[in-house]
Amino acid sequence: SLLQEIRPMFLFLLFTFLSKCVAQELADNPSPESLTQDPNHPVLPNHPYVVSTPWAEDGVTHQDVYKLGVKGQYANIPLRTDGYDHLSTFCYSSVPLSIYMFWSSASMKMDLPSNNYQVYIGPNVTSVSSLAQASESAWFYSQLPWRSKEFKLSPFEDVCIGVQTMEEYTITLQWKYVNYMMVVVTLSGMALFWMAPTLCRNTFFHYTTGISLGLLMSVVLLTYLAQRRFKQSLFSWVGVAYSFSVYLMTRTWFNIKEYMTEQYIHLLVGYVLVAGIISFAVVYRMGPPSNPRTINLIQWAMQAVSLVMVVMSSYHQPASLLLSLTMITWAAIPASLKSGVNTQIRKRFFKPQVKLLSEDEYNTQAHAETKKALEQLKNFCRSPDSKPWKTVTRLRSPGRFAEFIEGSPHLTEAEVMEYSHWDYNTDDEDDTDEDEANEAATDDNMD
Questions:
Q1: Do residues 283 and 203 touch, judged by C-beta distance below 8 A?
Q2: Rg of the chain over CA atoms, in angstroms?
Q3: What pLDDT digit, counting tens, does each position of 372-382 carry?
Q4: At 91, is the pLDDT very low, low, confident or very high (cuts 50, 70, 90)?
Q5: pLDDT tens digits for 418-447?
């Protein structure tokens, strides 16, 4: 197919693109040793330690604002001695969109031992200050279970992060020109999109998917079974149960590192075994789907998930959306049209080099191949698989067959002479017919 023809070219372009990205990353982020050894390199502007500067915005001057724009830059906030939480804001300036930064990512990582802090994220310092004031004046403020000390940023958007605490901490800007996890997600999404028609009909994939869903969403599935058992509406207590199930699932996922310690590892292993066995039993009882419409729905759902993976695998949203639309467009083109285009391309640009044989080469090759085929026929006739006695009963000349097996020629001398005489006479007759036609044409011209 055309996809198989362009696959090597696609891999070559992907390798070239990744090489270009890695080279650009090394050029933009030299090692500290190279900065020290090169006296001409401007070290002072890229100093990693950042201090706070007054920040004027919308006619208001904000204090304790830190601007981080280079990989490795960090800010250290000292311990507050007055016993009150203090808000410090860290701002990142965006970079222009570039296709070479398709898999680039940025983040701010906070080094704080405790969880006694509040985080506010906004596009500018004013929005961060407004969020902090709104949380202080609110009667009820809940902390979400998926709080993290590493804040993911888009390299192409301005963003400010406010941290409010009284403890000492350090926040560092991390930059990856090529985030290999994003590369894996992009390629996995593309592979899932093209392999969905095959995977949705694969029994092994059906079992592994069912067991994985049972492990990851066991609480939600139990809530669904309870809803069906008691026949309750979604707007009753079941809605609260679903919310609590999602809360437990997300809390467990974002705190999985805490449960993989020696204190909880035996409980985690026991849960995986029990939930895996129960999920396998349920999937085995239900069996793989056989309805064509059900299989089509599974295929479309897998392809929708793969498109979401491709779109969300890059902060370069226009490029990722264009890639997803290209995949959809290619899949919508009929196979007959793609096959015809593939045939025309191969005929025009990949013409096979055919070598013509001379008459001597043709005769030599015909003689060698005929001799080889006759030897193979003799070997087969000598083997028990040929059933020689049954073959002999069907022949008009068994003796000649036996002589052929023992090594005699496959043609007799009489047959060779007859063939040669027929060929000679045929040539003579053709010449005689041509002479007679020429004489008749001459007589007509004279008349």
A1: no
A2: 40
A3: 888 888 888 77
A4: very high
A5: 766 654 444 444 445 555 555 544 555 444
Exposure of 194 by Cβ count < 10 A (0-12 exposed, 13-18 middle, 19+ buried)? middle
Give dist(CA 382, CA 3) in Å, integer: 48
Hey, what's the torsion of the CAs at 202, 208, 213, 218, to 10 degrees? 140
- Using the predicted structure, report yes or no on whether residue 337 has a pLDDT greater than 80: yes
- At 151 the three-state DSSP class reads strand
Torsions phi, psi of 439, nearest 5?
A: -65, -40
User: How far is the CA of 73 from the CAs of 49, 114, 175, 297, 328, in angstroms?
Assistant: 6, 22, 10, 49, 41
Sign of torsion over alpha carbons 441, 442, 445, 446 = negative
pTM equals 0.63
Q: What is the DSSP string of 232-291?
A: --TTTHHHHHHHHHHHHHHHHHHTHHHHTSTTTHHHHHHHHHHHHHHHHHHHHHH-----
Tell me what pLDDT residue 445 has. Answer: 47
Tokens of 291: 């309805």
- Tell me which of 11 and 197 has the higher pLDDT: 197
- Angstrom distance (rounded) from CA 421 to CA 235: 101
Total residue count of the chain as it appears in this document = 447
Nearest C-alpha neighbor of 110 from the set 163, 189, 71: 163
Select from 90, 101, 89, 48 the least CA-distant residue to 70: 48
CA distance 278 to 217: 13
Whether 158 contacts 99, CB under 8 Å: no
> Distance from first CA to last CA of the chain, Å, rounded?
68
pLDDT (mean) for 378-405: 76
Q: How far apart are CA 260 and CA 444, in angstroms?
A: 110
Cβ contact 221:345 at 8 Å: no
The angle subtended at Cα 60 by Cα 45 and Cα 96, nearest 5°, is 45
Highest mean pLDDT among 5-14, 322-331, 431-440: 322-331
DSSP state of 114: S
Token pair 């500290």: residue: 32
| 298 C-beta neighbours (distance < 10 Å), count | 18
